[in-house]
């Protein structure tokens, strides 16, 4: 890789000069105090991963912007104040349910560059080269976020005013954002990884440790946001920003070209709509696997009276694990970008199919993943992340999940433009059967092809009650655990009758077929429960012990519209997520 040829001391020296002009500014008012986990609102609400982004979104709602306006402003704000996952260098999905009852789904997932090919991460012996699809320039797909926001604006914005939507984020980038404890720690933890892949100094690396409350200024990012505000699509996908991305690619051995950028297109898709116990589930079709898998999971457990089993009873946990095991086996074989692969979408979500998949379910005993293969649905005739949920005063609801994949994406900051690029290429199957970063395996359906979108687990979802009224807006980051987290939160609300806070903060567990184990959050299950499930044949693992991190699963943002018309807004306790409303 060319990056290795860049003398490390040059980068260190440049970094020193870059940050030497100013001593760190520490804010007296702690951003920590602005983190709010719940709100009850009469009119509108928002929950996102960062208090500054939630506040910007809320102000847009208060100024008469609709849910899409607030979503656009929030997305750009997250790109500034939440660089670990908020982005303009990544992609995502938006699911909408408008107050007039219409629904829509926007796909702004990253695309494989034109020069990508199925063996691009393999060595001459055909083995996957560790790290090539996750770190550095070759890991990035063509970013889709900016195109997605422009599409959403053109079709749904009520304000029709880019300055109103972007200026708050431009100011935030230029004047600086106060670092939370979590962000300061993350930037310090990733420092070496940033230095290893970057070809230019960046605002995210300095010689001393980042401190909580310190101000992170991003003037280059402010200029990029101004270019988008003033020139729309061309401001990012053409002109000096595109030149910077391509120059960055050339310096670091990446393959994204001007043509890849100018050809990028966000796509409107038909939302995936299904039923669960009289409720309507509106979610994302391929290239997300989330919507299909969620419908399959709910379909698989629907015949069982899980509400009466009780939250985290042995019976409920066992049933949900067995559904998860079967659905993730299908995901590995059948799901990919439906523009490139014939996804048997209709076949996978029928009750008949999922009941058949569950016919081997034994209420007393765990199945073995080695005995579970993907099913054979009727062929289709005719696929660190962040989430925010918004409901506006008129009742329009938007559920948005966007990603640069793992924390800080590829770790590459575009020189002169100041934003991280994604490492989404790892969401493709680099080689059949070889697990990706999230341990997910894939096959033909999700192989790399130029222009194709990598399979995602993102599951932005909206649920309506049996009267077709808005009930839940929900979603989460978390890689492969996204689907199971959304599934469990919906079941918490619909079956275990929890409110938004209880459903969001409840502990979670996850099974994804392979590896054949159920991963649980710290303090999730008692020793007795672990023994009981183990006696049934389940392998249970503390996620913290396996990953070495916190072992937490997802960061759910939930809004529930209650029968009395009020909005319950809940932001996950697991990070800096903030719920606001008015
Ligand atoms: N990058 C995580 C996902 O899209 O599933």
Structure commentary:
The chain is an alpha+beta fold. It has a domain at 8-268 and 385-446. Helices cover 35% and strands 14% of the residues. The protein has 18 helices and 19 strands. The protein has helices at residues 8-20, 51-62, 67-81, 145-156, 162-175, 181-197, 219-237, 239-252, 258-263, 290-301, 306-309, 314-334, 345-349, 351-357, 481-494, 500-505, 527-535, 543-547, and strands at 38-41, 45-48, 91-97, 103-108, 177-178, 215-216, 267-269, 272-276, 279-283, 386-391, 397-403, 461-464, 470-475, 509-510, 518-520, 540-542, 557-561, 567-571, 578-581. Strand 12 and strand 13 (470-475) form a beta hairpin. Helix 3 (67-81) runs parallel beside helix 5 and helix 5 (162-175) runs antiparallel to helix 7 (219-237). The protein starts with 7 loop residues before the first helix and ends with a strand. The site of glycine has 9 residues, from loops.
Helix tally equals 18
Rg from alpha-carbon coordinates: 22 Å
Main pleated sheet? 7 strands, antiparallel
Share of residues in strands: 5-15%
Bound molecules: glycine
* Portion in helices: 25-40%
- Work out the number of β strands: 19
Unreliable stretches, pLDDT < 50, 5 or more residues?
1-18
The overall average pLDDT, rounded, is: 93
The shape is: globular
Q: Structural class given helices, strands, pairing?
A: alpha+beta
């Amino acid at each position: 890789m060319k990056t290795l040829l860049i003398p490390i001391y040059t980068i260190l020296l440049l970094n020193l000069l870059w940050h030497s002009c100013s001593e760190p500014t520490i804010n007296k008012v702690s951003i920590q105090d602005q983190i709010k986990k719940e709100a009850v609102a009469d009119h509108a609400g928002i929950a996102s991963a960062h208090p500054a982004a939630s506040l910007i979104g809320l102000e847009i709602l208060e100024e008469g912007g609709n849910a899409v306006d607030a979503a656009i402003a929030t997305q750009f704000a997250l790109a500034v104040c939440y660089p670990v996952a908020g982005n303009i260098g990544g992609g995502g999905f938006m699911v909408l349910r408008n107050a007039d009852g219409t629904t829509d789904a926007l796909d702004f997932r990253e695309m494989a560059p034109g020069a990508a090919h199925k063996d691009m991460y393999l060595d001459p012996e055909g083995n996957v080269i560790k790290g090539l699809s996750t770190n550095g320039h070759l890991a990035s797909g063509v970013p889709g976020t900016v195109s997605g926001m422009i599409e959403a604006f053109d079709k749904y914005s009520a304000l029709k005013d880019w300055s109103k939507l972007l200026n708050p984020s431009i100011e935030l980038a230029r004047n600086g954002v106060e670092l939370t404890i979590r962000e300061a720690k993350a930037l310090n933890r990733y420092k070496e990884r940033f230095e290893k892949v970057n070809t230019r100094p960046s605002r995210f690396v300095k010689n001393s440790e980042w401190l909580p409350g310190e101000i992170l200024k991003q003037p280059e990012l402010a200029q990029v946001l101004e270019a988008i505000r003033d020139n729309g699509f061309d401001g990012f996908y053409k002109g000096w920003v595109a030149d910077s991305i391509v120059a960055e690619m050339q310096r670091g051995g990446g393959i994204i070209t001007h043509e890849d950028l100018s050809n990028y297109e966000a796509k409107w898709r038909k939302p995936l709509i299904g039923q669960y116990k009289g409720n309507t589930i509106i979610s994302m079709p391929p290239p997300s696997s989330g919507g299909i898998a969620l419908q399959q999971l709910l379909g698989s457990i629907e015949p069982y009276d899980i509400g009466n089993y009780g939250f985290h009873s042995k019976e409920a946990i066992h049933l949900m694990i067995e559904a998860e095991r079967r659905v993730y086996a299908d995901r590995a074989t059948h799901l990919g970008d439906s523009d490139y692969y014939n996804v048997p979408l209709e076949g996978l979500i029928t009750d008949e199919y999922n009941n058949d998949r569950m016919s081997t379910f034994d209420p007393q005993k765990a199945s073995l993943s080695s005995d579970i293969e993907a099913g054979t649905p009727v062929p289709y005739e005719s696929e660190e992340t962040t989430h925010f949920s918004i409901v506006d005063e008129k009742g329009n609801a938007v559920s948005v999940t966007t990603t640069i994949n793992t924390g800080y994406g590829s770790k590459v900051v575009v020189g002169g433009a100041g934003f991280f690029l994604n490492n989404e290429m790892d969401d493709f199957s680099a080689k059949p059967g070889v697990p990706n970063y999230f341990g997910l395996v894939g096959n033909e359906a999700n192989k790399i092809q130029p222009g194709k979108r990598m399979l995602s687990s993102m599951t932005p979802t909206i649920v309506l009650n049996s009267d077709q009224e808005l009930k839940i807006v929900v979603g989460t980051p978390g890689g492969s655990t996204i689907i199971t987290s959304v599934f469990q939160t919906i079941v918490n609300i619909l079956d275990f009758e929890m409110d938004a806070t209880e459903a969001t903060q409840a502990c979670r567990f996850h099974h994804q077929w392979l590896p054949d184990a159920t991963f649980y959050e710290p303090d999730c299950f008692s020793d007795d429960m672990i023994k009981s499930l183990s006696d049934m044949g389940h392998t249970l693992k503390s996620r913290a012990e396996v990953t070495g991190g916190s072992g937490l699963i997802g960061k759910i943002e939930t809004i529930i519209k209650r029968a009395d018309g009020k909005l319950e807004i809940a932001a996950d306790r697991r990070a800096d997520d903030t719920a606001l409303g008015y």
